[in-house]
Specification:
single chain; mainly alpha; two-stranded parallel sheet; 21 helices; 67% helix
């Protein structure tokens, strides 16, 4: 309905312009509009695909613009609040001792008011794949509050999960107005995810593709490409207009020529990034399963997890591995860091998220990848800043199963000159992380490996390792032809 009305208005506008330019009576313009809108003429025009594309563009341009405003505003609030929480915690480190209390408070709030939205990013993916109900508006303020509490008291978490949930939940409120169903609602939620990702990291191209790519491994719905792009661009611009700025990372001062050894080194790095990404996802899920199996009352889980984290921080005497860890990420591009930094961050983040604290996984994955890449410069013949950038996005690519979005993010953040090395790291990491990931509701659209058959539509939570008695190529081709 909206598309039809907008199409009529635009056609009327062009008809009016035509009558004005040709100096003919307005009545002629009305006749022209009548001809265009007549069923017979419209039937002819619908055979012309650009005529079909026009209503799609007219329909989604204003909607995506609004979604971008929602996402960008929400991300600006998130970034400002996290900056305040981080600064306050670092100035009053005694508050880390109260992390168990903060965990209990966050868990209690969700237990009382947020049970329907507790699944977070997985709820978004489930609603896209199997729509049931409109995502409640309260998801946005609840996840914002929960994330702020995590960072204020000293948990190790990120921010992307919060941005995605706020962007998508706010976007889904438009469903009440437009009564979207099926593909339209999927596109709307995808735009919300893209807008949230782009605005929180300052990467509109990566945000666009991330919203499309994260839904299912090996399968992308391109009908959401235009709305996702507009929401990502607008969301990022809104965040910038509100005065929030994103971290600027160092570009590698010199990019080596891609020799055979350089190619092999990049592939080796990608293999390691993928294995670490797989390990992170599995450890986080296993810790979560353990807490849920052993502790029935949800608020107690982050209380106990918070106590363990506070003890670890107290024993190590450093806050380097909690919060977002942006200073250490930046340092990984400038100086040689201890080779165990990535493991320490991995463990504390898995414990934080597995115990039920709110936040995201992606910024900690940036930390893990950048410091791991920094450590690999000891053994691989590539510069530390380049390897840090490759790891930054490479581990994320493997953990989220988003190699294209991760490659674009690397180019946006570290420059086009690093693009070849970054793409190798992301693609190889994606392959070696297997069919696992940080989002358990992510679907399998197509197997990562041509010789392994997997049932389409199975979520990662229900995925089981396939029988490795692999078919030969002729059997595979025959099966594909039957499909």
């Amino acid at each position: 309905m909206l598309a039809s009305v907008l199409s009529i208005l635009i056609m009327g506008f062009f008809a009016a312009q035509l009558t004005h330019r040709l100096d003919i009576a307005p009545s002629i313009g009305i006749i022209l509009v009548g001809i265009i809108l007549s069923p017979q003429i419209r039937k002819v025009f619908t055979q012309f695909e650009p005529f079909i594309a026009l209503p799609h563009l007219i329909k989604w341009l204003p909607i995506s613009f609004v979604v971008g405003i929602f996402a960008g505003t929400a991300s600006a609030i998130l970034l400002a609040s996290l900056e305040w929480a981080t600064d306050w915690r670092e100035s009053h480190r005694w508050i880390i001792a109260l992390l168990p209390l903060g965990g209990f408070l966050s868990g209690w709030i969700y237990h009382q008011f947020g049970r329907t939205v507790e699944a977070g990013n997985n709820l978004l993916l489930e609603e896209i794949h199997k729509p049931k109900d409109i995502i409640p508006f309260r998801m946005a303020p609840l996840v914002l509050l929960g994330t702020d509490l995590t960072h204020l008291f000293g948990g190790s978490a990120g921010r992307e999960g919060t941005a995605l949930q706020m962007g998508a939940s706010l976007a889904d409120q438009l469903t009440k107005i437009f009564h979207f169903q099926g593909a339209n609602r999927r596109i709307l939620l995808t735009a919300g995810i893209s807008g949230g990702f782009a605005s929180v990291f300052g990467t509109p191209l990566a945000g666009t593709v991330f919203g499309l790519e994260v839904l299912a491994i090996g399968k992308i719905h391109y009908d959401a490409l235009f709305p996702a792009l507009i929401a990502a661009i607008v969301g990022n611009q809104v965040t910038l207009l509100l005065g929030l700025h994103h971290t600027a990372y160092r570009h590698a001062p010199s990019i080596p020529i891609l020799t055979i050894w350089g190619l092999i080194s990049a592939i080796i790095a990608g293999v390691i990034f993928g294995i670490v990404a797989r390990f992170f996802a599995r450890v986080t899920h296993q810790i979560s399963h353990f807490f849920k199996a052993k502790i029935s009352y949800p608020p107690i889980r982050p209380l106990i997890g918070g106590a363990l984290i506070a003890i670890i921080v107290g024993l190590t005497g450093t806050t380097k591995y909690i919060g977002l860890g942006i200073p250490t990420i930046v340092d990984s591009f400038y100086t040689q860091l201890p080779p165990w930094d990535f493991a320490a961050k991995l463990g504390l983040t898995a414990l934080t998220l597995g115990a039920g604290f709110k936040g995201g996984e992606v910024t900690p994955l940036f930390f893990i990848g950048a410091t791991l890449g920094n450590a690999l410069s000891f053994i691989l013949g590539l510069p530390a800043p380049l390897l840090a950038g490759m790891g930054f996005v490479g581990v994320f690519a493997g953990a989220a199963n988003t190699p294209l979005a991760s490659t674009l993010m690397g180019i946006e953040l570290f420059g086009l000159e690093s693009g070849v090395f970054i793409s190798i790291a992301c693609v190889v990491s994606y392959l070696f992380s297997g069919h696992s990931g940080i989002y358990s509701s992510q679907r399998i659209g197509l197997s990562k490996y041509s010789a392994v058959y997997l049932e389409e539509g199975v979520s990662l939570a229900n995925y089981r390792r396939p029988n490795m008695d692999l078919p030969n190529d002729s059997e595979q081709e025959e099966s594909n032809s039957q499909k």
